[in-house]
Amino acid sequence: MPKRTDIKKIMLIGSGPIVIGQGCEFDYSGVQACKVLRREGYEVVLVNSNPATIMTDPEMADRTYIEPLSVDILHEIIRRERPDALLPTLGGQTALNLAMELNERGILDRYQVELIGAKAESIQRAEDRHLFKEAMLKIGLDLPRSGSAHSMSEATAIANTIGSWPLIIRPGFTLGGTGGGIAHNPEEFETIVNRGLDASLNNEVLIEESLLGWKEFEMEVMRDKKGNAVIVCSIENLDPMGVHTGDSITVAPIQSLDDRAYQAMRDDSLKVMEAIGVETGGSNVQWAIEPKTGRRIIIEMNPRVSRSSALASKATGFPIAKIAALLAVGYTLDELRNDITQTTPSCFEPALDYVVVKVPRFTFEKFPKADSTLGTQMKSVGEAMAIGTNFKQAMQKALRSLETGYSGFGCCAKCEKFKEYDDETLTKEVARPSAERIFVLYEAFRRGWSIEKLYELTKIDRYFLRHLEELAYFEDEIKAAKSLAGLAKNIPLFRQAKEFGFSDIQIGYMFHKRPEDVMEVRKQIGLKPSYYSVDTCAGEFEAITPYYYSCWAENSEPVRTIIGNRGKKRIMVLGGGPNRIGQGIEFDYCCCHAAFTLRREGYEVIMVNSNPETVSTDYDTSDKLYFEPLTLEDVMGIYERENCAGVIVQFGGQTPLNLAMRLKKAGANVVGTSPEDIDLAEDRDFFKQLVDKVGIKQAASGIAHNVEEALAIVDRIGYPVLVRPSFVLGGRGMVIVYKEKYLRKFVEEAAAIGEGKPILIDRFLEDATELDVDCISDGKHTVVGAIMEHVEPAGIHSGDSASVIPPMTLSKEIQDKVRQYAKDFARELHVVGLMNMQLAVKDGELYMIEVNPRASRTVPFVSKSIGVPLASYASRCMLGETLEQIGFTEEVHVPYVSVKEAVFPFVKFPGVDITLSPEMKSTGEVMSIDRDRGLAYLKSQLAAGNKVPSEGNIFVSLKDEDKQKAVPLIRQLVNLGYELYATRGTSTMLYNEGIKTRAVFRISRGRPNLLDLIHDKEVQWIVNTTENGAEAMVDEIQMRSKAVVSGIPITTTIAALTSTVEGLMDKHDFGRFEVCSLQEYHRHVKK
Amino acid sequence: MTDKFNWKAKREKKAFLALADGTVFRGYAFGQANDTVGEAVFNTGMAGYKQILTDPSYAGQFVVFTTAEVGAYAANHEKSESRDVFLNGIVVNSLDEVSKELNEESLHDYMLKHNKPGIAGVDTRALTIHLRNNGAQKAYLHVDDTDMSEEEAIQKAQEWVGLDGQDYASKVSDPNGYELSTEGDLHVVALDFGIKTNILRNLVKQGMKVTVLPITATYEQIMAKNPDGVFLSNGPADPNSLPQVVAVVKQLLGKVPLMGICLGNQLLGLAFGANVSKLKFGHHGCNHPVKNVKTGAVEITSQNHNYAIDAITLPEEVEVTHINLNDNTVEGIRHTTLPAFSVQYHPESAPGPNDSLYLFSEFRQMIEEFKAKQVSTPKPAEVPKEVKNVLL
To answer: Which of A761, A796, A1049, B23 is 20 to 30 A (C-alpha) from A710?
Structure first.
């Protein structure tokens, strides 16, 4: 059946900011959908609040709304655009929930918008616990004994009926398992149920029998409207039930099930699709199997493209999101070609002749107080995937792709600590699911512990344990070669070590050599990796699409000359690896732009990345895709094989940048700003000279390697100081210190993280305004993209601060100075490509904070704000074009205001202080645009999930120096009709200013206090500012954390309060939020 | 201590598979260390190694598993598809062990028990692509301890007669007939050319009594069982080498409802007068999309065949009911007037998806309809005699 012609305009909802549980996989799905729907001739209206995505590039859709993802805003957009259909299945749970709300509020009906991809009833059946259970029982599936409750008393009754501990508690209608948990006793039960009831959008929790220790599986299913259905990918979790699947190490295809068990699960997965009524598209069905009896239980199904769909697409070469979009507009699976083979249809089940391993990436180091035990609530912020010809190889590749300091199992400095564990600690850490458990397990095998013993402790399937055991023993086999030279003489052993996934880093570590030495020796003996393609069919048909992974097979597929690419130069683009706080989707955005642009400009683009969630790892983003770890060994292998003319390192964040110099030394041509200049910018002494030469001030500073040196520096420059290790992104280990006691503590900690690298100490500029500048240079001319002014004062990491284009408070004189500095620094650092500067303004003086000759986190935000594709132009500069040739010679000034706001994961880490600091903590960001700054800011708060209420009660608690500044703002709030609660001190101060408040106790002093107000839903907004850098009081931490968990908006700086009040006044005057597409905004930009 | 994994022997790769075209793939031996010849074919299924091992259709072949890891679960937990292992050997990339503590039987143990050789540590993707490009090949598997040159092995592969024109079905057909399930209101005779047990299970599941007869069964012997339907099974090697069976099928046509699977499909095709020819490297796997021409629905099917019916040689009264969407080959046929249909793929799966089980109920339905017609048509019992005379 051909595509539908009765619909012309389709609306797509993205998933909003990157949060734990909803990452950039939905950028991948949205981009695929946008591309294919437009290719089919549909007009696409896209809504997403996340500027860092590729999908929100103005070229991706016909109309792009970077607006908050709320029903009211969507209502406005629908009223404006009148789409024929809404495709809600590609934007994660966010899009699905919004679609349901639009439907429930009758908005879809009123504007005659058809839901395609999934019908409301189907979504409801999959999401509503009762309906789901009913539907599953009807088709004869087994479910955990369970019940759902809307109150504590109902919950207790269910717990009594089930009659055994532990119990799993899951809130209905949330994402990423927010608010769920495992209760081992009645006390824990009460805590978790309360939290779950709060987190649930429909005030419902599911309580069920524990399936802890059961094997967990996922099936990725595609179905078309004729009822044809296929399993795209089967996935087995290494971590058994009890660990959220997003936090589990997962493996594809399923290894430990025999065909009968697998086919029964396949049959049931297809039945689930039918029972839920998924008409078209991709879904994911999760199963648990009791290892002894084989009893199989359905866990859940998602009637939409999910995180696992992204993984499944990359693992198999089957583009789930693209096909889902095509099925939604009426095609059937047999009508669509398989992109990879281009001769066979999409109606098939990919056959894999390799093993895929996905490993989650955590950032517990950012939240030292968070519980690092993994459970049913997702805590990881990213993931790496690796492909190999056996499990061991894929597993070790995935571990080294994580970039957490482990290069695989054992053989690394970081692993030494496990050797110190006594047996008791080891036992405990083996049994406790954590980010590092897999390494602890390896250590246990190194000690000769048996598979059975470790099975009892972990319930990890023996299949996986067996391979870990083998690897642990094999380490000795390699070591028996005694030296690298000894290993080089035993080529079969060397090859076997590589086949088992041991990297040059690990082998080097064993023999006290550098990875480069190992690489060199391998070259001498001719031991090179081979490359095979991901072809969807295990070699049965010829694959057209060049999507590769490395392995150590004896043969290799030849380097492909792509039709039409003969004679083109090959340029390699290095991606950013797994997402983490500080290095996320923004960098993937830049890499994709480089790929799109260079292909257009006549180069053959080779992409290397290890992150399955990204658009860069879509096989049609580049000419050739290598799904590989970003280490020297892996990158150089490809570089040499493809005989590349150059490699681009400045788009993928710190990961490729850290490799730049070593790549150059290994013989690669790093295009753009040279590795030497990149290193120079990081060199303090050189930078200081440069700053002097350019003539800008810098905060007094020094470099320390230990506590004594640090104290000496502070004697010279005075407190407060900013302390941080060098060579990190995202402000890891960075703090502001006011007292010697803390200085000692932090320097010790920083020394530990920095692994011998120096520690930087700067005088901290209190109450300064911070600026970010992104600019582009062709080596001769430099053009500023935009100057951004931060809303929060200096001292809060730039990634965590809201920022505004154009600057709010800076004089033209200051701005012009900034522009001049940008030109000076770009010239001095010989920048070819992008450069980012961070500066502070204090008392009318500019101070240089840092300069980075690379793509920054703000590049997509700036590009979307000014309507200029900076990353694209930068890549052209790197390959020799001038800005004049490109036609970008003047800074763009826009007649509207863009605001970027950060989004934080605090809700996932109860008890963690949410105070902002120099250490970056946000996982994602949102953008909003309006002609009016106040409204733009207010929209950004709404988009970030900090929905400031337009009426109700505000709780105010201010630090002393903010009190006077706050008075006029609070007065305005009273004028707008809000009622106030305040702590004693604030209350008294406000009373003296003639503002009435209701006083409550500090949490530690008595009741009623704020916690009671929150509990009774008496407070709708909290304004709470604390001392900068001081150790936050315990009760304040408790208060903020509680507010976040309860979903109450909280404002923590006077600057943010100022902007919010401005926005509230404007909204009060204007009456509503306005929406407008990026394409329309950009029409007003004078270029 | 590290000897327990025998890594040294594995990495030395003393065993090899030599193809008749001179290509050699190296690995290490497992199972029974006996050299042998066979035809190398690849199978792209990702699970179900035991069903593949015990599928008699693989008689005479070396099965190359394309899936990366083979043997990750125990052999003793799965059902067999026949009474023995009939293939000549297997080729795998990464061979897995199972739990000794749980008394699990490993793939190695299982091969040893059935006296069959295997070779592991092979670059199976390279081998698969080679077979895809050059077609299924005669090969020699060297796994024993003797020194043998690659040249010698290649020569042995070349000298072997191969599977073309060979009757392997007779070798695997159980010479003793037997009966399954005395319950059931209908009675089916299943002709065993190498029948898979799951076919029998599915026939029984349809509420039918099943009598299995060997490949040597004559028309008279079959009809003497007074069957309501006759099933033509799957089986190995060349359908063109079985004219005597084709003759029996011709006799059965129209007299009794027929269903065929795989070799049974080819034999029915030959009985209809069509040609059956060899595919380059055949279909072996669990992921082949087959379109049901009548309903338009697509089934994901389990496949294992090297031969296929040439569509254009089919007579007008025979319609193609199923086609393979990968290469458009014939996957199912049905006579428009006589009660006979067959499919090239394996609706009984084992291993593979269960999308096509409906065919067994269609068979039952066909039998019921035929019976209903017989009741209304006088003297059905006369027909066989006439046919017999004609043939004599």
So the answer is: A796
Domain span at residue A625?
A: 563-671
Residues A402 and A419 in one domain: yes
By mean pLDDT, which of A213-222, A384-393, A979-988 is the weakest? Answer: A979-988
The stretches in chain B having pLDDT less than 50 are: 1-2, 380-392
CATH of the domain at A33: 3.40.50.20
pLDDT reported for residue A1030: 46
Give me the number of domains chain A comprises: 7
Residue A553 contacts B where some CB pair is shorter than 8 Å: yes
Instruction: Tell me the per-residue pLDDT of A634-683, one tens digit each, with 9 for 90 and over.
Output: 999 999 999 999 999 999 999 999 999 999 999 999 999 999 999 888 88
Give the CATH number of the domain where residue A1053 resides.
3.40.50.1380
User: Does A96 share its domain with A152?
Assistant: no
Which chain A residue has its CA at the smallest distance from B25's CA? A554
Give the closest of A253, A258, A344 to B77, CB-based: A258
- State residue A1087's pLDDT score: 56
Q: Angle A943-A38-A326 (CA atoms, 0-180°, nearest 5)?
A: 95
Query: pLDDT tens digits for A623-644?
Result: 999 999 999 999 999 999 999 9
| pLDDT tens digits for range A842-886 | 999 999 998 999 999 999 999 999 999 999 999 999 999 999 999
With respect to residue A305, please indicate whether it lies within any of the assigned structural domains: no
A361 found inside a domain: yes
> Which residues on neighbouring strands pair with residue B230, listed in sequence order?
B189, B258
DSSP β-bridge partners for residue A43: A9
Is the same domain home to A818 and A783? Answer: yes
Would you state the structure tokens that stand for residue B316, as one six-digit string?
A: 């007008």
B286 is catalytic: no
Q: In terms of CA atoms, which chain B residue is nearest residue A346?
A: B289
- Say if residue A686 is in the same domain as residue A795: yes
Q: What are the pLDDT digits (tens) for A406-431?
A: 999 999 888 899 999 999 999 999 99
Is any Cβ of chain B less than 8 angstroms from the Cβ of A474?
yes
Domains and CATH numbers, chain B: 2-159 (3.50.30.20), 169-391 (3.40.50.880)
User: At A177, is the secondary structure helix, strand, or coil?
Assistant: coil
Mean pLDDT of A344-372: 92
Q: Looking at residue B376, what is its pLDDT?
A: 72
**Sign of the alpha-carbon torsion through A248, A249, A250, A256:** negative
List the 366-405 stretch of A: residues with Cβ below 8 A of B: 388-391
Instruction: Tell whether A91 and A163 lie within a shared domain.
Output: no
Q: Apex CA B256: angle with CA B251 and CA B262, to 5°?
A: 80
Residues of A in contact with B13 (CB under 8 A): 492
Question: Among A716, A689, A690, A681, which residue's Cα sits nearest to residue A702?
Answer: A716
B281 alpha-carbon distance from chain centroid: 14
A23: DSSP letter: -
Q: Look up the pTM and report it.
A: 0.93
From A192, A210, A228, give the residue that closes a domain. A210
Task: Convert the pLDDT of each residue in A599-614 to its tens digit.
Answer: 999 999 999 999 999 9
| pLDDT tens track for A155-165 | 999 999 988 78
- Beta carbons within 10 angstroms of residue A843's beta carbon: 7
Give a yes or no: residue A311 inside a domain. no
Q: Could you give the angle at the alpha carbon of A732 between the alpha carbons of A731 and A735, nearest 5°?
A: 75
A343 contact residues in B (CB cutoff 8 A):
326
Is residue A681 located within the same domain as residue A776? yes
Where a domain ends, among A210, A236, A257?
Answer: A210
Asked whether residue A1015 is assigned to any structural domain, the reply reads: yes
Is residue A469 domain-shared with residue A523, that is, in the same domain? yes
Q: Tokens at residue A556, please?
A: 């290799």
The secondary structure element, H or E, covering residue A188 is helix A186-199
Asked if residue A479 and residue A377 are part of one domain, the reply reads: yes
- Sorted by sequence, the CB contacts under 8 Å of residue A399 that are 6+ apart come out as A359, A406, A407, A408, A409, A438
